[in-house]
Design a protein that fits this description.
The structure holds two protein chains of two kinds.
Chain A: H1 5-25, H2 27-53, H3 58-69, H4 73-78, H5 84-96, H6 98-123, H7 126-130, H8 136-169, H9 182-207, H10 213-241, H11 243-264, H12 270-273
Helix pairs in contact in A: 1-8, 2-5, 2-6, 2-8, 3-5, 6-8, 6-9, 6-10, 8-9, 9-10, 9-11, 10-11
Chain B: E1 5-14, E2 17-27, E3 32-36, H1 43-51, E4 58-63, H2 73-78, E5 80-83, H3 95-105, H4 113-123, H5 139-151, E6 157-161, H6 169-184, E7 188-193, H7 196-199, E8 205-210, E9 213-218, H8 220-227, E10 231-237, E11 252-258, E12 260-265, H9 270-280, E13 285-291, H10 295-306
Parallel strand pairs in B: 3-7, 3-8, 5-6, 6-7
Antiparallel strand pairs in B: 1-2, 1-4, 8-9, 10-12, 10-13, 11-12
Helix pairs in contact in B: 3-5, 4-5, 5-6, 8-10
The chains are: A mainly alpha, B alpha/beta.
């Protein structure tokens, strides 16, 4: 029966897979997002780390040592490396780029999420879904998965590339590959996922109500911008204050995400897929 | 089951507007029902109510004996195939992927899905275009793909909303052919249209809607009896002037002559009497043609009476 859980998830997955297939065909949509992701995960860290690890100017090296001295004592103890530039590159790699790892996947998921429901309405294909046996919950779940996967994929592929760059550029100076650290693993696998879910819950609820993709993007930006700022602070905090804080923040974010997802699942209604109802 | 669709006093409003205002419908299984009405009559809303895509504000509506907007709605939708006024296709996907998506959502058996897709595409002449992106399809091809998608899961009830609007004659013929074919298979079809000619000859049951209300409903024969009780005969003769005698006959309701003579009689039984009378008067008749009213004539008769 279509109401069984197995079938229900199968149908949600069918919706998600079809959305992802469409996304893959929309190069004009995902190319800019991939460029942003590459910039933040690969290009900017790579250039900065490359420059810093090769500083030979004594004055500049001394200034970089001063920067390390300005970090909290607990952090200073963990910073590896002998010279100022090496310590600076280690600190940069481990502590300062962490927020970007949250911001970029959030941006990607938000963009996909804002487009997924409103796109159905704008193209008129929502009518097909509205007449289909898929339940509103299955449609919501499908759309959610379709927006989550690109965000997570960006996060983990970006994280992998970032790890490689960091280890290749800084690793030899600090005695071998050192990345990812426990804090980063916690950030990527415990803190980031609920933040993406939280953002998507809000975006799907908004995009089910507004009438155009432009309006969905605008409203989503309004909602996700504070969330991105919070995520930024959280990522920095969890890096600087230790793993326990990251675990607590992650737990809080998971509770918030589950509540938000449950609430926003009611936003997807058949008549809204037809372009009716506010 | 006596009826596939049963609606009693169904109302659906959008803000201040009553799109459907007290709809009454009884549609028997295996019939072709045509919903006739001008733009804004509420035809599209009726289709959406039938699948539960929209819920009625009040009234009783069942499809296959189930409330489509209730808990059993998924079962209703699984047994329905819908061709909306806009084809509602996924332009970035290929024709094949559009059909596969529908097949999976409508629970077509995984193993038989590829064959079903090919068969449906062949049926509507789009098999060569299946690998192409739908965004590159012509209007006619999109309509054919929408039709293939609607019948892929072999629905018991097919709902077509203005299915031939904007189509080339060949595609329109494919639509009407499909309806005929489904009717022969004993499936139920509901078709919304404002094009009376395409409903002609297809409809077992006609429902005339206006401003969300059922003006009349019944088989074309019933509606003919109700709204076209007399018989119209077209006559011609070698000496047309002689035909004017018909105007004075007691059983002739109306008479006009403009090239040929058009005579309205009280009953079809009066036709032999009319012919005898005219022949006796010396007329050499070259044409005696009793007329069955077209759906278009009926529709306008109904509308004028309601007005």
């Amino acid at each position: 029966m279509s109401t069984s859980h197995g079938s229900s998830y199968a149908r949600a997955w069918t919706i998600a897979r079809t959305d992802l297939r469409q996304l893959r065909q929309a190069r004009d949509f995902w190319m800019p997002l991939m460029i942003i992701a590459s910039l933040f995960f690969v290009v900017i860290p790579g250039i900065l780390l490359l420059i810093i690890t090769r500083v030979s100017n004594i004055e500049l090296a001394s200034q970089l040592s001063d920067v390390i001295g300005a970090l909290p004592t607990a952090i200073q103890e963990h910073v590896k490396g002998e010279s100022g530039p090496t310590q600076a590159s280690y600190a940069l790699a481990v502590y300062l780029f962490a927020p970007l790892a949250i911001v970029v996947p959030l941006t990607v998921s938000s963009a996909v999420g804002a487009n997924t429901i409103i796109g159905e309405r704008e193209r008129g294909s929502g009518e097909f879904l509205a007449h289909s046996p898929a339940s509103e919950r299955e449609i919501y779940l499908g759309k959610l998965i379709a927006a989550l996967i690109p965000g997570y994929l960006t996060a983990f592929v970006g994280f992998g590339l970032y790890s490689l760059i960091v280890n290749l550029l800084v690793g030899p100076k600090v005695g071998g590959w050192f990345f990812p650290t426990t804090s980063w693993v916690l950030l990527m696998f415990w803190v980031l996922p609920p933040f993406i879910c939280l953002a998507l819950a809000m975006i799907l609820a908004i995009s089910a109500r507004v009438s155009s993709a432009a309006a969905a993007q605008q409203s989503s930006a309004l909602v996700t911008l504070p969330l991105i700022l919070i995520a930024y602070s959280v990522a920095s905090g969890s890096m600087f204050e230790g793993n326990m804080l990251a675990i607590l923040i992650g737990a809080g974010a998971w509770i918030g995400a589950i509540l938000a997802l449950t609430r926003s699942s009611k936003a997807v209604r058949r008549e809204r897929l037809l372009g009716m109802g506010g | 089951m006596d009826t596939v669709i049963s609606a009693r006093e169904v109302i659906r409003t959008f803000g201040e507007t009553r799109a459907v205002d007290g709809l009454d419908l009884e549609i028997p299984p295996g019939s072709v029902t045509v919903l006739l009405g001008p733009n804004g009559a509420g035809k599209t809303t009726v289709v959406r109510l039938l699948t539960g895509a929209l819920a009625a504000d009040s009234g009783d509506l069942t499809v296959f004996g189930i409330d489509p907007s209730g808990r059993g709605g998924a079962e209703v939708r699984r047994r329905c195939g819908v061709v909306p006024a806009r084809p509602a296709l996924y332009d970035r996907l290929s024709g094949y992927d559009n059909l596969r998506y529908a097949g999976e959502l409508f629970e077509v058996d995984k193993d038989s899905l590829p064959d079903r897709i090919t068969h449906a595409a062949e049926r509507f002449g789009i098999v060569d275009a299946l690998d192409r992106r739908v965004g590159a399809y012509s209007t006619g091809m999109r309509a054919r793909l929408a039709l293939a998608r609607a019948v892929l899961h072999e629905p018991d009830l097919l709902l077509l909303d203005e299915p031939t609007a904007g189509l080339d004659p060949e595609s329109a013929k494919a639509v009407l052919g499909l309806i005929d074919e489904l009717a022969e298979q004993g499936k139920s079809v509901v078709m919304c249209t404002h094009l009376l000619l395409e409903a002609e000859g297809l409809a077992d049951h006609v429902v005339v809607l206006d401003r969300g209300t059922t003006l009349v409903s019944g088989s074309p024969e019933e509606l003919t009896r109700q709204f076209w009780p007399g018989t119209r005969v077209v006559l011609d003769a070698e000496q047309p002037d002689v035909l004017d005698r018909a105007a004075r006959l007691p059983y002739v309701r109306d008479y006009s002559r403009n090239g040929v003579a058009t005579v309205d009689l009280a009953t079809v039984d009066a036709v032999p009497d009319l012919v005898n009378e005219l022949v006796s008067a010396g007329a050499r008749l070259t044409r005696v043609e009793p007329q069955v009213p077209s759906l278009e004539q009926l529709y306008f008769e109904i509308r004028s009476r309601q007005a």
